[in-house]
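Example 9 (inverse folding). The structure is encoded as follows.
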């Protein structure tokens, strides 16, 4: 089978669905904020978590497990982000998710082994705009997003 170099755009409806973020740093924080904004019920698993992450209100649908990842953490999850600074752990999380049929995204160089990538995007007055280079150039996606965001906010 030939691998496609084109991604399939999709916006997930995650309200009330359980999602896991493994990792406790700045990238994990951004992923958690996006999931919470979508109404997901988020569990964060990490041995260390930033104060910014720990400051999120548990009433918003987040729970914390300050310990090492275990394969059992995947039970009843819809979506997983492997957002650690440990490449071997991120690869193991992807493999565990694959066995269980759970969509997983790694935020390191293992991203091609995962199931999806997250585009650069923004929301404005009920419109969601997403920009992706298919993982090839995240800085370019961000640059285009910033241009479009300024333009849209000045137009609408």
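The amino acid assigned to each position is listed next.
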């Amino acid at each position: 089978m030939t691998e496609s170099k084109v991604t399939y755009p999709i916006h997930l409806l995650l309200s009330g669905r359980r999602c896991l973020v493994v990792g406790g740093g700045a990238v994990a924080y951004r992923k958690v904020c996006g999931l919470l904004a979508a109404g997901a019920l988020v569990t964060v698993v990490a041995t260390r978590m930033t104060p910014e992450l720990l400051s999120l209100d548990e009433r918003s649908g987040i729970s914390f497990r300050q310990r090492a990842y275990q394969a059992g953490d995947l039970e009843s999850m819809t979506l997983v982000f492997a957002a650690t600074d440990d490449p071997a752990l991120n690869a193991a999380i992807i493999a565990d998710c694959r066995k269980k049929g759970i969509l997983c995204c790694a935020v390191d160089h293992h991203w091609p082994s995962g199931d999806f990538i997250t585009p650069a995007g923004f929301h404005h007055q009920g419109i969601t705009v997403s920009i992706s280079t298919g993982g090839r150039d995240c800085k370019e996606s961000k640059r285009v997003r910033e241009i479009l965001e300024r333009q849209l906010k000045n137009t609408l």
